[in-house]
Protein 1
Amino acid sequence: MKLDYRNLPGRNSMQIIEYIRKHNGAWSSPYPFVMSKEGSGCFFKDIDNNPYLDFGSQIASNPLGYNHKDVINVVKNYAGRSPIKYAGQDFMVKEHADLLEELIQICPKGLDAAFIVNSGAEAVENAIKICMRRRPATRYCVSFESAFHGRTLGALSLTNSKTVQKKNYLAIPVKRLPFDENAPEKLLRLINDEGGSDNIGSVIIEPVQGEGGYNVADSKMMAGIRKVTKEHGIPFISDEVQAGMGRTGKWWAIENFNVRPDVISAAKALQVGATISNKKFFPEPGAISSTWGGGQIIDMAIGMQIIRTIKKDKLLMNIQLQGNYMNKRMLEIESISNVRGLGLMRAFDVSSTRLRDNLVIECLKNGLIVLGCGKSGIRMIPPYIVSSHEIDLAVDIIKKALVKCSHKKFKHKGSICRFVNCAEASI
Ligand SMILES: Cc1ncc(COP(=O)(O)O)c(C=O)c1O
């Protein structure tokens, strides 16, 4: 698909966006176009026929790209059938067993059971619940600075990346560790100063922090935290909602650190949420449930197929290969800093939040989707099938956009500023 400069939003998109803005209770300045069903690989079109190269992968939840034949085949299987959602903890479907089987096969040894839920936040919520259930003396949980674990109240308590997400909400008690090599010692100090390890419900970490800035954990810190949690019997959760399911070139991001967690929370690329642990770690029957848990029949079938296709097409290798290539090409871009990441989960910083926001929009106007993260970071998370040619296309667009946006008097023009968080947006 040919990418060229366009004014956004297009006329068809504009009407729908205006309506959604008026009536959607959770407006958050989304990308200013409406998706069509057309697309192929890393490209898709909006309803105004504008093509895009997608280096955002639906926020890491579209790992095989658009209209992948394996996924389309799964969807065809369910055409003309209803219901599509079952009350899956009470009325079982075979897809539940199939997904569990496929998922457990790729999990670290000892993690042999999963509770399938509806979202990433729910996967985290249930991870902290199953840990607390075993620890009646829990007074607080532990997470990290700049962490993002979701927006339900329990998960939100652990989240620490943006104040707008937390204001006025009651929280479960949480203490924070720095996301650096001082964390193990700080955890030991907490244990000593705050009445012992039994008070701690769990320690949760993102091996590569997502929304907080694509910060890769220090491997000594990771080993140290695991050592302390193991010695003191504190459950250790790896939140892999964004970084898991192959995104970093290994099935689970924590595997890059040779550390085994007690619990993994997964979602996004898996298509459903999953709290994964050892069967013995889960509480007694009835303690956790959800109407649709294990009953999202198409989502589970697609999630299972995604795992199979990643294996069949050796996509972990492509993720490593193209991830390294992307890193190399990113290092060539002038006036950016802190190029970082693992696999196809990469980011860089520019000199200010304003420049970052302008850059995201300028890329978009030229047909490239990238996402912001942290204070002034841009993240690049293409589908696992991305090619070197597509990475070249993306880097060229970023380079040109960066030169343009870096001019002192640069300003976006047109109706796009009514809808997005560019530096000039008034919303
Ligand atoms: C690491 C991590 N945990 C939890 C969540 C929450 O997932 P969801 O938005 O599906 O509730 C996210 C979402 O971005 C995430 O990146």
Note: The longest helix spans residues 388-405.
Protein 2
Amino acid sequence: VRVMVVGATGTVGTAVCELLEPGHEVVRASRRGDARVDLDDRDSIAALADGLRGVDAIVCCAASAPLTPLLDGDFIPSLQAKLLGQVELARTAIAHLPDGGSVTLTSGRIPEATPGSAGGALVNAGLEAFVRAGAVELHRGLRLNAVCPGWVRESLVALGMDPSTGTPAREIAAHYVEAVESTLNGQVLG
Ligand SMILES: NC(=O)c1ccc[n+]([C@@H]2O[C@H](COP(=O)([O-])OP(=O)(O)OC[C@H]3O[C@@H](n4cnc5c(N)ncnc54)[C@H](OP(=O)(O)O)[C@@H]3O)[C@@H](O)[C@H]2O)c1
């Protein structure tokens, strides 16, 4: 299977590419990747349609929704790239992938009662609702799923935080591989 990984240079994306590579052909995409796409830019997502020729599956683990104070912060950037960007990417891919193709998006799990998490929680809940509801409309054997990572161990290390509560990126990456290789549809994994 030829799989495009959007966010291929990131912590999660790197592990996903490594795990996919033995069995699949991987096309790396991001704002600065071999294939370019900016989830913040609708035109750039629409332009990706051409780059999807020959691609069977798309995995997106790009963009993020950083902690943002409820009143002082701006939720729009996270909503724009991580929520609406992934939704638009999925809709574009579904229109262009061949029969049996799959789309796997990324939501996220934030520990309860984390100050600044309202915007991220909104983004993640929106993505998971979109996947569950959107999957029922798919035809031609197409599939739509999401992976919901909690803290990634490597990210905690990079941030100088206690890594013991994190999950190794490779373990999280296995959920993306399962989404690509299985027949799952409308599921949130992880
Ligand atoms: N790491 C964690 O602990 C954790 C926990 C829960 C959820 N998640 C979620 O998992 C996903 C991946 O996280 P990560 O830690 O791997 O992120 P990361 O290391 O910051 O990597 C982000 C990747 O996305 C690309 N990217 C960023 N903005 C983009 C945009 N607007 N359009 C296209 N590509 C873009 C980056 O490459 P370019 O700069 O070249 O574009 C990079 O390849 C995110 O959705 C994040 O919210 C992560």
Note: The first helix runs from residue 11 to 20.
